[in-house]
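Quick one: structure for this chain?
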Amino acid sequence: MFIEKVKTRTSNSGVNYYTIKLQASSRRGAHRKPGKTTILNLGVGYSFPQELWKKLTDRIEQIQKGVPSLFSARPEVEAEAQRLIMEIRRKEAPFDATDQSKTSLNGYFAEDVETKHLRAVGVEYVALHATEQLKLTQIFTSLGYGIEQIKLFLALIIGRKANPGSEVSTFNWLQKTSALGDLIDSDFSSKSVMALHRACDELYDKRDEIDDLIYSNLLKTSNYDTTIAFYDLTNTYFDVNPDDEDAKRGF
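Got it. Here's what it folds into:
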């Protein structure tokens, strides 16, 4: 098992584009020719230090084989290895909620249950449902955005609801606390904070068009009546005698 930088395409201008993949050596065909099998696509923005890639893949193989490590792995290596193991298992055996054999707790005791990387999902689920009612995904698609960009938009919007703060605060929330990535099938641990900054800029630039489309959807799906309200915002002011003791500054 190894991590490799793989070229995906070359643009017309000659610029090469790459992604990072977790790969395994394999042999294929009747002649058993050596090749590579992709285990996980870690993405363009995979930021785990390259000098630790070998230690990381070694630790992943130890976990998969159940081989105890003679020496404790560095904390960052252990954390990343556990995260990737979960991604591999989720890819190989997706959870089936209809399979009663997997949802039953018969024969298990509380002390036998081990948990890791607990995440919150309550507010995220409600907020995601609200975005579906507003048809935000369809709106973003109509504006020409791809699915990965739309997931970043949803993360920013739901993050403002569930964990109000800056893009950096939202980034930390997505990385450490929230299970929103599981709800919308996105691995935010492979994203960078700059990706959120750029997505926020896009939302701001398109704010008028988005507002108009949301309003149009609300009119179509509800019984709202359009009403124009006028407000008198004339300022009120007072004229006083500057020599009046009560009108002096600081009174």
